[in-house]
Amino acid sequence: VQLQASGGGLVQPGGSLRLSCTASGITLDWLAIGWFRRTPGKGCEGVSSISFTGGDTLYSDSVKARFAISRDTTRNTVYLQMNSLKPEDTAVYYCAVDKNTNAVHLKIEEYDYWGQGTQVTVSS
After folding, report:
1. Which of 38, 59, 3 is nearest to 120 (CA)?
2. Taking the CA of residue 55 as centre, how many other CA atoms within 13 Å lie in the half-sphere pointing to its CB?
3. Per-residue model confidence as pLDDT tens digits over 11-57
4. Cα(60)–Cα(14) distance, integer angstroms
């Protein structure tokens, strides 16, 4: 199983980025997919989750109304659209798959497969 995360980069405050997470070796149907981020000071934080079948979504309070998670079932891919970015959004972002449930959640320890991470830097 491989999760390929991409789309990170350097953006000014207020800008936007779209992250992608494409899975190979596993079909995401009936699974939960999460986005997490890691910073040196705050550790690992759950950002958003989606049920690949059904499309239920969940967001942390820190990104609600600014980020949008979505999926393309034909491409076995999940996206994280990040708008109105702030310097505190700077982190390495990871996607992950929980192979045991389709229910959305941000319990880090229950995700089984992880991507390699993509750096997002918000700075002027």
Report:
1. 38
2. 6
3. 999 999 999 999 999 999 999 999 999 998 888 999 999 999 989 99
4. 19
